[in-house]
Amino acid sequence: MCPPALIPYKPKNPKTRLSSLLSDEERERFAAAMLDDVKAAVKDAMCSPVLVCTELFDSEDVQVTITDADLNGSLNAILPQSVGPTLIIMADLPLADAASIRRVIQTDKDVALVPGRGGGTNVIFLKDPAKFHVDYYGASFLKHKKIAEEAGVSVDVIDSFRLHTDIDEPWDLVELLIHGTGKSRAYLEELGFSISADQGRVGVGRKR
Amino acid sequence: MCPPALIPYKPKNPKTRLSSLLSDEERERFAAAMLDDVKAAVKDAMCSPVLVCTELFDSEDVQVTITDADLNGSLNAILPQSVGPTLIIMADLPLADAASIRRVIQTDKDVALVPGRGGGTNVIFLKDPAKFHVDYYGASFLKHKKIAEEAGVSVDVIDSFRLHTDIDEPWDLVELLIHGTGKSRAYLEELGFSISADQGRVGVGRKR
User: If contacts are CB pairs under 8 Å, which of residues 80-119 in chain A contact chain B?
Assistant: First the structure.
């Protein structure tokens, strides 16, 4: 099984909540490094990455679909035309690895969901994509569970902190510096970031 | 296999970082409800809970060990005397369930670790407890990995958001209200807490 893995991606002005730590250019390069980590994990799990972008974006190694709709609109235009099992995975999950993605795509249910921090949905796996539509933003995890129930399809919730950990806020960088192994962690280290650990809470610092 | 599950527990003045949302008495009852959820999950996974308390604490249904040392001191006094596989699990993991704990205790390595948010360690499973000592606080996950390496024992890292999600800060309550199924979630709802979900980030609110 080599299902397509749709990866929504915003190349311009990404990750604005990291603006206090990273310049505009650094945010773009960091988002691209996280995307590379997600693509690598997806390929290791034998899925075929397909970027879903709202802007023109050159990618040598993977298929790119350009759309002028928002996240929900784009995916909800693609899903009804999709045949066979389809994965949707966010681009800001640099801790994703083949093992965690395999646990998702090997579900024995019709739909598998991986919740993100704060009620979001980080990964969706659909055996029959035409029976589902997405509704991101807000407590999307609860919305997606309900959409599946209303469609009469069975739902699995995959218990993974690697896929649960989306990188949005400055304190999320701690997770990447501790558990990351790919390009985005290397890029943070190149920029001078490291964890600052005393006996209390662990923070993140940057040498300039 | 019915390994003991050591659960360090502080009955007095727990969870001080929730003081902005909960009164002293509410924090004590909330911590006790989370402990009940952890005990239930541990029992469902066929482990035998043993509370490790620094204060006298009555518990009808489980064994209690009273110690006057701190967290590290207490556990490091117990481990050398422990024979056979032993689990150490924190009391503030109300999303713990039997499936996630089973994944920990079924490891084929000598030691299994589950990282907590921000570099902490939420669960440790030791096949030979006498070969290990704990060093909590700060980036304890990295310290525990190193302790295992220095002891020459193999380490597994279990990928679970249910065991990764320790409840410390106000925003952690969102996770419990979305994914919890036990007494601590019910207690929060009894107190009037619910998630407030608009199209942006999900928060938590309280009706008084």
Answer: 99-100, 115, 117-119
Q: Indicate yes or no: CB of A178 within 8 angstroms of CB of B141.
A: yes
Q: Do B197 and A118 touch (CB under 8 A)?
A: no
The C-alpha of B155 sits at a distance from chain A's nearest C-alpha, in angstroms, of: 14
Residue B195 makes CB contacts below 8 A (sequence gap 6+) with A119, A139, B174, B177, B178, B202, B203, B204, B205
In chain A the domains, ranked by start, together with CATH numbers, are 4-169 (3.90.550.10)
Span A73-87, average pLDDT? 95
Q: Is B175 on the interface with A (CB under 8 A)?
A: yes
- Please write down the HEC assignment for all residues of B121-189: EEEEEECCHHHCCCCCCCCHHHHHHHHHHHCCCCEEECCCHHHHCCCCCCCHHHHHHHHCCCHHHHHHH
Q: Output the CA–CA distances (angstroms, integers) from residue B22 to B15, B30, B49, B169, in the order listed.
A: 9, 9, 27, 11
Instruction: Give the pLDDT of residue A35.
Output: 97
- pLDDT of A64 reads 86
DSSP B18: G
Tell me, what's the pLDDT at A56? 73
**What count of other Cβ atoms lies within 10 Å of the Cβ of residue A180?**
23
Q: Is there a contact between A160 and B160 if contact means CB atoms under 8 Å apart?
A: yes
B154 contact A CB<8A: no
pLDDT at A132 over 80: yes
pLDDT digits (tens, 9 = 90+) for A9-68: 999 999 999 999 999 999 999 999 999 999 999 999 999 999 998 777 777 778 888 888
The answer to whether A198 contacts chain B (CB < 8 Å) is yes
Q: Is the minimum CB–CB distance between B69 and chain A shorter than 8 Å? A: no
Contact between A141 and B99 using a beta-carbon 8 Å cutoff: no
Distance, in angstroms, between B48 CA and closest chain A CA? Answer: 23
- What's the CA gap between B138 and A205, in Å, rounded? 15
Q: Which tokens hold the place of A29? A: 């390069």
Q: What is the ipTM of this complex?
A: 0.94
User: Smallest Cα–Cα separation from B92: which of B23, B45, B39?
Assistant: B39
pLDDT tens for B88-145 read 999 999 999 999 999 999 999 999 999 999 999 999 999 999 999 999 999 999 999 9
